[in-house]
Amino acid sequence: MNIIILVITVSMLVIAAFYVVWADSFFTVLAASSMVSVGLVLLFVLLRAPDVALTEAVVGVALTGVIYALTLAKIDLWKINDNDDNNDVSQSKQ
Amino acid sequence: MQRWTTILFLTGLSIVLFAIITPLVLGQSPMLVGKLINASAVNDTGAANLVTAVVLAYRGLDTLGELAILFTAATAIGIILGTTDKTQTTSSPTAGFIVATAAKVLFPLLLVFALYIILHGHLTPGGGFQGGAVLAAAFFLLTLADSGNNIKHKVTQVIEALAGTAFIVLGLVSFALQGVFLQPWLDKGELGSLFSAGSLPLLYLALGLKVGAELANLLSSLANVEK
Amino acid sequence: MMIWDDIFLEVDFWINIVSIALIVIGIYGIVFSQHLLRMVFGLGLLEAGVNILLVKAGYQKEAIAPIVTQASDTMMSNILAATAQMVDPVPQAMVLTAIVIAAGVQALALSLVIRIYKKYGTLDSHVLFLAMERDRHLSLNQKD
Amino acid sequence: MQDSLILLVVLPLLLAFLLPVIARYLGNLSGLTGSLLLLFNILLLANAWNSVGYSPKVILLGGFAAPLGIVFYIDKLNMLFAILTTIIALLLWPCRTHNTDVREYVLWLLLLAGCYGVILSGDLFNIYVFYELLAVASYGLVTLPATGASYIAGFRYLMISALGSAFALLGIALIYSFTGSVNIAHLAQIIPDHLHHIWGYSAALLLIIGFGVKAELFPVNFWVAEVYSHADKRVTALLAGVVSKIAVLIILRFIILLFPWQDIFNFLLLLGIIGVIVGEFAAFYAQDLLRLLAFSSIAQSGLVIIAFACATEAGIMAGIALAIHHLLLKPALFLLASHCDRSINDLAGLAKSSPWASALFVILALSLLGVPPLPGFWAKLLLLQSLMAEQYLLLLVLVLLATIVEAAYLFRLFMLFYQRQEMPEQKRITIQGQELYPVITLSGILLLGLFFLPLFMDSLREIAMQTSNIEAYINTVLGKVQHIGEGNI
Amino acid sequence: MSVLDLDHVFFLLIVNIGIAVLWGNRPFVGKILTLLYILEGLSILTSYHVLLSGAVLSSSLTFTVMQQTVQWQLGVSGGFFALITFMAAGLATWFSSGVWARSYAPIRLLHSYMALNVAAMLLLLASNDFLGLFIAWELVSLVSFLIIAINGGRSAKAAYSYILYAFLGAMAILLALIIIWNATNSFSYVEVRHHWSTMSVNRQLIVVLLLITGFGIKMAILPFHRWQAPAYAYVPAPVAAFLGAISSRMGLFALFIVLLQVVGIDVIQTLWLPFEIINMQTFLLWLAALTLIIPTFIALRQTDARLLLAWHGIGQGGFMLLGILSANALGTAGGIMHVFNHASYQAALFFAVFSVSYRTGTADLDRLGGLVTRMPISFTVMLVGIIGLAGLPPMNGFVSKWLIYKALLDEGMPLLFLAAVIGTLGTILSVYKLIHNTFLGQLRLEHENIKEVPWSMSIPMMILASIVFITGYFPGLLLESIAAMQSTLGISVVDYHLGGVNTGKGNLNMIVVVSTMLMAIGMGALIFFVLGNPRKQVTQWDNYAGGHFLTSDMRYQYSHNFYPGLMRVISPLYRNTIFWLESAIVSTVQFMAHISYALFMQANYLLYLILLVVISLLWVLAV
User: Using the beta-carbon criterion (under 8 Å), do E609 and D225 form an inter-chain contact?
Assistant: First the structure.
């Protein structure tokens, strides 16, 4: 039974990891990185490591997520990828 | 061209790592130290959560080191982002009404939840780091609600310093008593009850408070960077 | 098909896949990205991949989480029996520290990113490298 | 009494935690508390030194036996490095000017605690944690000057160091999944014979590269030139002198105890010699003094790595001698160079405006070069003898050629300093007296060491013997317990 | 006599340095320093008979490190060279102590560097094991770097190229030391000689080649000769004389000790270069012969007198090496004697050239001429000097050259003898050009009222000229200590008497030769004066050349194409290959420096870390 859960989390993790590195707007990158942490939490639960899962949940998802969000706000990339100011996005792509 | 090199690099590296990692068949890793700790942890430290026993008793110095690393990171960020003690008002728009009321409601709940996690560190999964982070989230929620009254740095710094010293003093007391630093002292109480596992919960409490204050400081200095 | 089945059904195979994927993509993120922020994200991925491997090092087949739950009947014997099939707690303690270290380092890196953005207005690593060399050159020559 | 050596690590942390709060009341005394603490450390180490005289001691953390808990291993080599770190830190302690933020002292104290932890600890993961503490503190200190360039240099340094640490953690994960324990003495029993295969080698490589970042190993020392020329002068002196030598000390412990295989030695020898040659040639081309010294410190670390990589007793002795010599000499050179931080040909005629500083610079550079009467020569002689004993003739010739290139750019500097014409009035550099005190004390120690050379050599030989004696290490730590249940590898 | 004589000498040297550094620029201090040098020379002379009997002047300067005791004591060969050093230093300081000091600003630097040089050289001469030798060797090369760079500008550049060559040499010696230490586990000469055969043959070959390169660089043997001429030419007068006389002979002393005493000439004869092309001894002899010929013919083309003499210094160095390595009693005696002779007339010539340039302001042969009437003493000194340099009978140069020629012929090396003769031919030609262009020929208008140099400068010159003549007259004075030297080294001893040497096939008695010459010259002068001294005082322009009268503005004296016939024949040979080799090396070093600097200046530096990890892991998988 947990093999299926494992396969789902693994595939979700790998896809999220792809998005973190290849996504265009940093907004999606932030979301993808939180997704990776969530996947990690699931994995740690499957690996019988509840303490680590809780830490990863709190520190990995919540704390780093908030810190990334704040940095994005400070370097004014905190915009949904609307098409009018593409320069910021293109600048972050190349 | 750039695309091909990336793909080549990715496949090459993954093949190399795969060749190295695959023989680590899961489940057969020889638990040399693990078996011994599992056997002796309960009556050595009296903690139900063996991971806490390892984190605070067997490998206490790692956690002290870890605490120091977080403290260094926080101070370094303080220096880099240059938040001195003056509280400047940021021009970020005040959050909507919903967030403000939700913040007021959620704050006490989060506090209780955080303290629960810290105090039950030696019984259920959780402990200083996790509880401290939740604590910081609770305080940060307030600044998120109305950016006016952000965290007063002086208070958090005092908490941070005291909690850190408390952690070390607990270790030094055992050094004075038994001549060995960071040895769990105090009676172990009966397994599973709140006041069991000797000095471990106290250590985790000090740890939690320090991490909480530190991260709150960090988050507020991040939030208050001039636009 | 038999061989393929038991490989795919094996938990170990999938965990290897995910950790290697995370490490490789993390390294790619750090080394090949132009944007400083993307490097920090890559670092996060790399740390995650390594943490998985560290936890996997302690996992035992059909073992239970290292928490003594039936604390009520304080019979030492069956507590010892319970702890016998527990997972190895030591790597979990290590991973706990590793995650928090990674968080600390990433927070520091991000504050540096903010400071660099405030001062130079761009986050492209090539442009920044040339800016650093130019500053160095300026500070060398016009020392008053 | 040597149990109290744990205070070396704990007291700086305690003071660091307390300092932000008590600094408001202490005012400008807070700088003083740091130096008082260092003096106390020296006292601690001094009376521990004679008690550790004959056989190494062990401190159990948390009172648990060796493989379970964390263990501190005290032997003459660790003590020597601890004492030298304290001396250098005391000399380089930042003096309290009006605008120094008290948090700078906090970072210095944390860096010191990290250094002590790494030197003394006998547990693989504990070394990693203290190494990381060292690293994070040095990120903070590197960006102190708050100039744009220092931020970029700090960020790049952070990235390469974090990447290195991730690889080290990967190495630790590999080792743990094969042996199930993290205590170095315990591993020293298992790894050399059981892990002599691909995974043992890859774990060794990952660890060496991870810790090589700070040890200025060849391909991972790109940060050296940027960081040393942008960071604050005392931080650069500390990083170049103390921290890089401590990282090399860790690598020494690894290749003696955990991975005593000839392939790993060859790998390190190869990287070391490339580091030496590339370092010297890059220094030959460097345009400004700080960058020149940075490249020369890469070359010197390469020499130390080469010495340690021929893991015989003579090799270790040569390595320790070179490390100590460089540890005392490089901070002094960096302190001197930080005043004349401008492109080299603007330094023409420095001897006229600040004669004492240039005279000291010449003497120290000659000792760095290995000119006979000065201590540098004896350290290099030991290195050459140990290389010859191992019949590495090509390495010997390359090291000597590198010295010639070193002579070329150093004498080019001396000629510039002692040129006839004056420095232009407004660009004149005069280094006042009180700036020179740490430099004078360091060169005093070096020249004083010359008089006690025979005595110094014998104690060095004794230290090298004690370090290369692996059975003593395992027995003291594991208390002569035989192999604990390592059946099923 | 107290055996600790060397301590007195060291004490005097320290006093010497103290005085020079503290009161260097006081007017009378030059004389005190000269006295001190002479005192030191005398203190060695007084205990010289102890040395002659083979004993050793030991000193309390010893230390033991790594179970090696390093001890300084002076043997007879060290004593002989020390005497030359003190003679050269004393006369040089005397030359600079008088009027000359006022014309030279950094006189304090000059005195202190000279004192340091002498002290370092004595330390070298007194070392009796490899470690002491290397320490003193580095000190000597450092201190002579200081003294060469004293004038700044051109001499600073020459000093920079010198110190690079010196470090190349020092590293070669250090490598040889380490290889020897590995074989014999000790640095003392006796131990090394004892264990020498344990080394494998090609390792012995490497050690000998390294030692020769190391010491040869200081002696400016052929491939490494480019640094010495400008280094010894562009320095002030006393320094040029001192360096020209003794400084490059330190390399010879070290080679003499190491090759003959430690390695032994028989070993060198048995060693063969790879692929049996050439025996080591013949290789070295031909190297010495080429070092004699090529620099001498380069000197032929020089127009600056100082450079001409400096190039001759290199040539004569080759001559000495030729003598020492000829493995024949006469040859070694000739070689060592040539050191003394060359020191004396080279210093005299340098003094003469510099006194001319002190008066006329230039040493360029094109702008001099006809000074014999104005500066007679300098003329006589130069005359005596060039006769010595050319190796003609009354002067001491002839004795040592004769010994070396005889040795070469006795050993059956006619081709080498021919090469030596060609070298001497070159010397004679260039030496004549020197004296003709400075003293003979047409006096220039601006040199009308040139006066002779003051006494304080001309007395040392005259002393040197007299030394050249006396040792030429009674070579026995030198041969006595040379014989003692040969016996201490264990090589065949030359049987000598006051007048010269008597060998089986024809002996040399300089007393007879010189007295007959003096009688002949005396007779000629007598007849000339008895016949009423029939000569007419004419002014310089009352003569004509090539059928037409000379006017004062016409220049018929030149030094550029001085020997047009000879030059047309040999000019294609001047291809200065070594110059191109040297600049090629320098540009490769700069190129590699540029690459390694660029290697570090990378925007994307993490790539290298990953490449290292991937490559090392692949290597691990492969292994």
Answer: no
The residue range of the domain holding C84 is: 2-62+77-141
Tokens standing for residue C109? 């890196």
Residues 6+ apart with CB under 8 A from D452: none
Chains that touch D (3 or more CB pairs under 8 A): B, C, E
Which of E417, E284, B59 minimizes the C-alpha distance to D183? B59
SS3 assignment, position E393: coil
Average pLDDT over residues C95-110: 93
For testing the chain C interface, which of D152, D161, D220, D426 should be mutated: the one with the most C CBs within 10 Å? D152
The answer to whether position C69 is within a domain reads no
The pLDDT of D275-295, averaged and rounded, is 91
Number of structural domains chain C divides into: 1
Q: Does the distance separating the beta carbons of C21 and A17 come in below 8 Å? A: yes
Asked whether the beta carbons of E226 and E164 are under 8 A apart, the reply is no
Residue numbers in A near C95 (CB within 8 A): 49, 52, 55
| Mean pLDDT taken over chain B | 80
Whether B53 and C90 lie within 8 Å, measured CB to CB: no
What does the alpha-carbon distance between residue E264 and residue B130 come to, in Å, rounded to a whole number? 80
Short-list B17, E623, C13, B15, CA closest to D198: E623
- In 3D, which of A60, A91, A61, A62 has the Cα closest to residue A77? A91
Total number of domains in chain D = 1
Say whether pLDDT at E170 is over 50: yes
The rounded percent of chain D whose pLDDT value lies above 90 is: 35
pTM (predicted TM-score)? 0.90
Average pLDDT value for residue range B116-124: 85
Task: For residue A89, give both structure tokens.
Answer: 């996005």
Kindly give, in sequence order, each residue whose CB lies less than 8 Å from that of residue D401, ignoring residues fewer than 6 positions away.
D277, E171
What confidence tens digit (pLDDT) does each residue in C5-22 have?
A: 666 667 778 888 888 899
What is the DSSP secondary-structure string of chain B? -HHHHHHHHHHHHHHHHHHHHTTS-TT----HHHHHHHHHHHHHH--SBHHHIIIIIITHHHHHHHHHHHHHHHHHHHHHHT--S--PPP-PPPP-HHHHHHHHHHHHHHHHHHHHHHHTTTTSS--HHHHHHHHHHHHHHHHHH-SSS---HHHHHHHHHHHHHHHHHHHHHHHHHHSSTT---S---STTSTT-STTHHHHHHHHHHHHHHHHHHHHHHHHTS--
Among A41, A51, A55, the strongest candidate for a mutation testing the B interface, having the largest count of B CBs within 10 A, is: A51
Nearest CA in chain B to C55: B26
**Which of C24, C55, C112 to substitute to test the interface with D, most D CBs within 10 Å?**
C112
CA distances from E235 to E170, E239, E243, E340, E373 (A): 24, 6, 9, 22, 28
Q: What is the CA E601 to chain-centroid distance, rounded?
A: 47
**Residue D486 falls inside a structural domain:** no
C-alpha–C-alpha distance, residues C19 and A33, integer Å: 15
Contact D62 B36 (CB under 8 A): no
Q: D489 lies in a domain?
A: no
Q: Is E156 on the interface with D (CB under 8 A)?
A: yes
Query: In this predicted structure, what is the pLDDT of residue B187?
Result: 75
| Residue E125 distance to chain D (closest CA, Å) | 17
Tell me which chains share at least 3 CB pairs under 8 Å with chain E. Answer: B, C, D
Q: Does A14 touch chain B (CB under 8 A)?
A: no
Q: Where are the domains of chain B?
A: 28-223
Q: State pLDDT tens for residues B126-179.
A: 888 889 999 998 888 887 776 655 556 778 888 889 999 998 888 888 888 877
**Closest residue on chain D to B155 (Cα):** D21
Q: Which letter, b or e, does each residue of D74-87 get, where b requires 16 or more Cβ atoms within 10 Å of its Cβ?
A: bbbbbbbbbbbbbb
Spell out the domain ranges in chain A. Answer: 2-93
